[in-house]
Amino acid sequence: GQQVMQIPQYQHVQEGEDFTTYCNSSTTLSNIQWYKQRPGGHPVFLIQLVKSGEVKKQKRLTFQFGEAKKNSSLHITATQTTDVGTYFCAGFNAGGTSYGKLTFGQGTILTVHP
Amino acid sequence: NAGVTQTPKFRVLKTGQSMTLLCAQDMNHEYMYWYRQDPGMGLRLIHYSVGEGTTAKGEVPDGYNVSRLKKQNFLLGLESAAPSQTSVYFCASRATGTDTQYFGPGTRLTVL
C-alpha cells in the first residue's frame, strides 16, 4: 500500500532560525495536504498542493510539490514560538477510488527555543 | 457552527470493557473518518464512511466497529478493549467535491 515518509521526526530550533520538513511518497500522489497540530490540539488544515512543481506561500511558510508528485516540503522562515507543533503531510493516491482517504506522514515535531 | 465534536474527551477503560466514541458534525458533510494517533506513527485511518448508512475499513480496522445511522454522526465502538488500543482518537469530516478534512478535538483513551 501507499506509504508516506516524513523527515525529520524532531527538529529543535532557536527562534529566528529556519525550519524545513520533507515528505516522500512511495507512489505518485494526486495531491498533497499539510496540517499543523498544536500541542494537545487537533490537526488543522494548512494547504493543498495539486500541480506538479507547485509552490505556494503563506506568510513565512513555503510549500512545494515535487515535479514527479512524489515528494513535498514545508519551509518556515525565521521561526517564531507560535510555530511550535507537529506538522503533517498527507497524500491522496493518484488513480483509483480513494474516497478521500489520506495517508499521513509520521509528522515532524517542531520545538522553538526563545 | 460547532464543526466536528467528539465525546468523551477522556476515558479510562479496563481490558475487556467496551465503549463507544461519538463523533458529530453540523456541516452536512458526506464523508467521515476515524483515525488513531500514536507517537511516531502519525494518523492512521481506522474506518471511514462515504455517506449515511455506509462504512468501510481503513488501514487499522481490527478490534473496532463503526456505524453511520445518521449523516451527522459517526460512532466508533470497541467491543473488548485491549491495552494496544490506548491512543488518541480523532474524527474528521469532509464535504463532497472538496479535499479538506476537518478534525474534531480528539478523545484520549487509556486501556489498563
Structure description:
The complex is a heterodimer of chains A (114) and B (112). With 114 residues, chain A is an all-beta fold. Chain A is 0% helix and 55% strand. Chain A has no helices and eleven strands. In chain A, strand 6 (55-58) and strand 7 form a beta hairpin. Chain A starts with a strand and ends with a strand. The model of chain B has no long low-confidence stretch (mean pLDDT 94). Chain B is mainly beta and 112 residues long. Chain B has no helices and eleven strands. Chain B has strands spanning 4-7, 10-13, 19-25, 31-37, 43-49, 56-57, 65-67, 73-78, 87-94, 102-103, 107-111. Chain B is globular. The interface between A and B is medium-sized, with 22 and 25 residues.
What's a quick, concise take on this entry?
The complex is a heterodimer of chains A (114) and B (112). Chain A has 114 residues and is mainly β. Chain A has strands at 4-7, 10-14, 19-25, 29-37, 44-49, 55-58, 61-65, 71-76, 85-93, 103-104, 108-113.
